[in-house]
Design a protein that fits this description.
- The complex is a heterodimer.
- Chain A is mainly alpha-helical.
- Chain A has helices spanning about 1-30, 40-60, 65-100, 105-130, 155-180, 180-195, 200-225, 235-250, 255-270, 290-300, and strands at about 145, 155.
- Chain B has two domains: about 1-95 and about 175-255, P-loop containing nucleotide triphosphate hydrolases (Rossmann fold, 3-Layer(aba) Sandwich); about 105-165, no CATH class.
- Chain B has ten helices and ten strands.
- Chain B is globular, with a radius of gyration of 17 Å.
- By secondary structure, chain B is an alpha/beta fold.
- Chain B is about 35% helix and about 25% strand.
- Classes of the chains: A mainly alpha, B alpha/beta.
- The interface of A and B includes residues 183, 191 and 201 of A.
C-alpha cells in the first residue's frame, strides 16, 4: 500500500506537469491544426526564466519560512509563465505567422517547428547552461515529508506541484469556457472563417492562444526545474510525453489534455512498478519511458481520437 | 456586365444607396469567378441574387463581407470603400453575413453562439437578445443545448439570430432555404421579411427563385459570373426567361 501510494503520488506529480504542457499542444492544435513541436522549448525557457528571476530576488534563500516558501513558489510560477509566454509569442510571430501569410503547406510548419526547437535549445544552452549548476537552491526543503499515510511518504514538493498545476488548470478551464477571449479561441478552433465574420481577429486570437499555452508550459517548466534539474535539453522527453498525453486525451480537447497528462503520469509510474509489494517489480522502474510510449502506440492503434477526442482534424 | 432588363427605374424605399458594387471582378487563381458586375442595395431594400450553381452568387456575397478580396472593381458601403477590409473589421460597420451552410459553432451552446454574434460588442445587448428569442422561440427552448444537436431548420434560425446579435445594417443571407422542409422555409422567409421591416437591408442569395423574388424588392440574375438580368421582384417573376430557366427547373425538381 505504501509503495503504491508513493508511486501514485510520483505519477500525479509528473502527470500534472505533463498536463500543463499538453494543454499548450492541444490549444495550438485547436486553432491552427498544427503540432507545435517547439513547445517543449517553451517549457524549457520557463525553467531558465524562473530560475533567473527567483535566484535574482531570493538568492540562495536558506532557511525560508512557510510564508516565504509560498511567495517563492508564486514568484517562480509567475516568472516561468511570463518567460514561456514571451518565448511562445515570439515563436508564433517568427516561425509560424510568416508561413501562414504565404499559405505554406503543413509540412513547412512542421519543419519550421523543428528548426525553432533546435534553435531555442541551442540558444538557451549557449546563454545559460551551467547556471547555478542547473539546479534551484533548495527553497522548499525538497526532502521534507508532509504526511505518512499507510507508511507512504508524501512530500511537500509533490503537494505544491500538484496544487499549483490543478489551480492553473482550473484557471484555464474558466478562461476558455467563461470569457470572451475563451469564446473567441473556441470559435476560431471550431470554424475560423465564420469566427472572423463575427468580428474575431484570427491572427490576434492565435497569438493569444500561443501566449496562454506558453504561460502554462513555462509554469510547468518552473515546477519541473524545481523538482529535478534543468538544462537546455530538458524539454525533449517531457515535451514528447506531454504530446503523447494530449493525443491520449484527444488532441484539440482541453479537458482531454488534463486527463491525458494525469493518466499518462500515473500509468508510467504505476504500471512498471507493479505489484508494489515485496520483492521485485514485474517490469521495473527503468521501463517508465517505454511504458509511456507503448501506451501512446496502443492508443493510436485502438482509439486514435483519444479518450475525449472526436474526429482528428476537426477536434476543438 | 451585359443587359439590364428594365429594372433601373425601380424606386428604393428611401432612395439612398447603402451598398454599391461597381465592376467587381473576383478570381480563384487563374479562374475568373465574377467577371465585372455592378449592382447596389438601397437603404431598407431586400435585393435577391439569383442564379444556378456556380453562377457566382456566393462568391459575390463573400467578397462583400470581406472573406474574399476582389481582383478589380469597388465595393462601397454607406459612402465608404470597403473592398479589402478584413471581415472581422467589416462587421463593425454593420455588415453581418449568414454564410451558406449555416456554420453555427457546433460545440457551443445556442446561448454561446448568440453571444458570438455580438462578439464585436463588449457584451451582448440584452434587448437584441430578447428580440431574437422572440423571433425564434425555438432557440429559447434550445438555449442551453449544443448547437450541433439542432435540426437543420433550427441551425438556420440560430445562424440568422446570431447575425442579428451583431446589429446589422446590411444582412447577407446565403441560401437560407437550403435543405429545409417547405414549412420551415416559409417560416424563415417570413422572419426575413420581418427583419427587413425593422429597417435592416438584405442581400439575399437564393436558388429558390420564386420564394426569393416574391420577397425581394429587386433582383439580379447571375450566369457564370456575369449579370444577365435585373429588375423588380415582380418583373422578374413575370419574365419569361426567368420562368423558363429557374422556376421551371424548380417545378421539375
Amino acid at each position: 500500500m505504501s509503495e503504491f501510494l508513493n508511486f501514485l503520488m510520483l505519477g500525479l506529480t509528473r502527470g500534472s506537469m505533463y498536463a500543463l504542457i499538453a494543454l499548450g499542444y492541444t490549444l495550438v492544435y485547436g486553432v491552427l491544426q498544427l503540432i507545435n513541436f517547439a513547445h517543449s522549448e517553451v517549457f524549457m525557457a520557463g525553467a531558465f526564466g524562473s530560475f533567473l528571476v527567483v535566484h535574482l530576488v531570493v538568492g540562495e534563500g536558506e532557511g525560508l519560512g512557510g510564508f516565504e516558501q509560498l511567495l517563492v513558489t508564486l514568484l517562480g510560477l509567475v516568472a516561468g509563465a511570463i518567460s514561456g509566454a514571451v518565448v511562445a509569442f515570439v515563436l508564433e510571430r517568427v516561425a509560424y505567422r510568416p508561413l501562414r501569410r504565404r499559405g505554406a503547406p503543413k509540412l513547412a510548419f512542421l519543419i519550421s517547428a523543428i528548426g525553432a526547437s533546435f534553435f531555442l535549445s541551442q540558444l538557451f544552452g549557449k546563454l545559460f547552461n551551467r547556471l547555478g549548476n542547473n539546479q534551484f537552491p533548495d527553497y522548499l526543503h525538497k526532502g521534507e515529508v508532509l504526511w505518512t499515510p499507510f507508511g507512504a511518504r508524501i512530500k511537500l514538493l509533490q503537494v505544491v506541484i500538484i496544487i499549483s498545476a490543478v489551480l492553473l488548470m482550473i484557471f484555464l478551464d474558466r478562461l476558455v469556457s467563461g470569457t470572451k477571449l475563451g469564446r473567441g479561441i473556441r470559435a476560431t478552433a471550431e470554424d475560423a472563417p465564420t469566427a472572423a465574420l463575427m468580428g474575431v481577429d484570427i491572427d490576434r486570437t492565435i497569438s493569444r492562444t500561443f501566449i496562454i499555452g506558453g504561460a502554462l508550459a513555462g509554469a510547468a517548466g518552473f515546477l519541473f526545474g524545481y523538482a529535478f534539474v534543468f538544462s537546455n535539453t530538458m524539454g525533449f522527453i517531457p515535451g514528447i510525453k506531454a504530446f503523447a498525453a494530449a493525443v491520449l486525451g484527444g488532441i484539440g480537447n482541453i479537458r482531454g489534455a488534463m486527463i491525458g497528462g494525469l493518466l499518462l503520469g500515473v500509468a508510467e509510474n504505476l504500471i512498471p512498478t507493479a505489484p508494489w509489494v515485496g520483492g521485485d517489480a514485474w517490469i521495473g522502474q527503468e521501463w517508465t519511458d517505454v511504458v509511456a510510449f507503448v501506451l501512446l502506440i496502443l492508443i493510436l492503434v485502438f482509439r486514435p481520437t483519444g479518450i475525449l477526442g472526436e474526429r482528428l482534424g476537426r477536434a476543438a | 456586365m451585359s443587359e439590364q432588363a428594365g429594372g433601373s427605374s425601380v424606386p428604393g424605399r428611401t432612395g439612398s444607396v447603402l451598398l454599391d458594387v461597381q465592376d467587381l471582378e473576383v478570381r480563384y487563381g487563374a479562374i475568373a469567378a465574377i467577371k465585372g458586375i455592378s449592382f447596389h442595395v438601397e437603404q431598407g431594400e431586400i435585393v435577391a441574387l439569383l442564379g444556378a450553381n456556380g453562377a457566382g452568387k456566393t462568391t459575390t456575397q463573400k467578397t462583400v463581407s470581406g472573406m474574399l478580396r476582389p481582383a478589380a472593381g469597388s465595393i462601397t458601403f454607406d459612402g465608404q470603400r470597403i473592398d479589402g477590409i478584413p471581415p472581422h473589421k467589416l462587421i463593425d460597420l454593420g455588415i453581418c453575413h449568414v454564410p451558406e451552410g449555416r456554420h453555427v459553432f457546433p460545440r457551443m451552446t445556442v446561448e454561446e453562439n448568440l453571444a458570438m454574434g455580438a462578439f464585436r460588442f463588449r457584451s451582448p445587448d440584452q434587448d437584441v437578445l430578447a428580440h431574437v428569442l422572440d423571433l425564434f422561440p425555438r432557440l429559447k427552448e434550445r438555449y442551453g443545448q449544443q448547437s450541433g444537436t439542432l435540426s437543420g431548420g433550427e441551425q438556420q434560425m440560430l445562424a440568422i439570430g446570431r447575425a442579428l446579435m451583431g446589429k446589422p445594417r446590411l444582412l447577407l443571407l446565403d441560401e437560407p432555404s437550403m435543405g429545409l422542409a417547405p414549412l420551415i422555409v416559409q417560416q424563415i422567409f417570413d422572419i426575413v421579411r420581418s427583419i427587413n421591416a425593422d429597417g435592416v437591408s438584405i442581400l439575399l442569395v437564393e436558388q429558390n427563385a420564386r420564394q426569393a423574388l416574391s420577397l425581394a424588392d429587386r433582383g439580379y440574375v447571375l450566369e457564370t459570373g456575369e449579370l444577365v438580368l435585373a429588375g423588380s421582384g415582380r418583373e422578374l417573376l413575370a419574365d419569361d426567361r426567368i420562368r423558363a430557366a429557374y422556376l421551371g427547373e424548380e417545378l421539375a425538381s
